[in-house]
Design goal:
mainly alpha, binds zinc ion, globular
Length: 181
């Protein structure tokens, strides 16, 4: 996996593009959390769940179905507070932020692939192009040469494009609409 911070940055960038302008701040923070959420499955390691199981790492929580359920749940939470258009934008934004996690994992060069179609299909997928170096699981490992090279690959392939998207989106979007939140 890329580091959790890298997933958060990607989620923030997606929200700057897709979140409704009137709820951009609120939805951005939710998108950041949702982009990190799939790795909650790491808890399974402590509970004896095997990596390759449906509930194992990069399993069900890294699927399109999970992203859809999360997106519907977030939109439902805003049901009485947002207009229909805002709800639809929020739904799409949160879905994309959540599934971005799995898609980035599928761009890494290690671990098992991602169960994008779980629970209907157990196949673990990688993209043909895997430029992101897989992150070590321990924090100490980031103090090694390998940790430095992992962060360098994440900065090149995720941080820089995400920051470029965020800056551009802030200039292009939501300039005429007053912030309501
Ligand atoms: Zn992951």
């Amino acid at each position: 996996m890329p580091t959790i911070l890298t997933h958060a940055i990607a989620g923030a960038a997606i929200a700057q593009v897709l979140a409704p302008c009137s709820r951009r701040h609120e939805v951005t923070w939710i998108a950041v959390v949702c982009a990190m959420l799939p790795d909650a499955d790491s808890i399974g390691f402590r509970l004896g769940v095997h990596y390759g199981d449906l509930l194992g790492h990069r399993g069900l929580t890294h699927s399109f179905l999970f992203a859809g359920v999360v997106a519907v749940g977030v939109a439902a939470g805003l049901w009485n507070k947002a207009k229909a258009g805002e709800l639809l934008q929020t739904l799409v934004c949160i879905f994309m932020a959540t599934i971005s996690h799995a898609l980035l994992d599928a761009c890494t060069n290690g671990g098992m692939g991602v169960a994008l179609l779980a629970p209907f299909n157990k196949t673990r997928y990688f993209f043909p192009f895997t430029p992101i170096k897989v992150s070590p699981l321990s924090a100490e490992a980031f103090l090694t040469q390998r940790g430095v090279s992992v962060l360098a690959s994440e900065m090149a392939w995720v941080w820089c494009p995400s920051i470029a998207v965020m800056v551009t989106a802030r200039w292009v979007r939501c300039r005429q609409t007053p912030e309501l939140t």
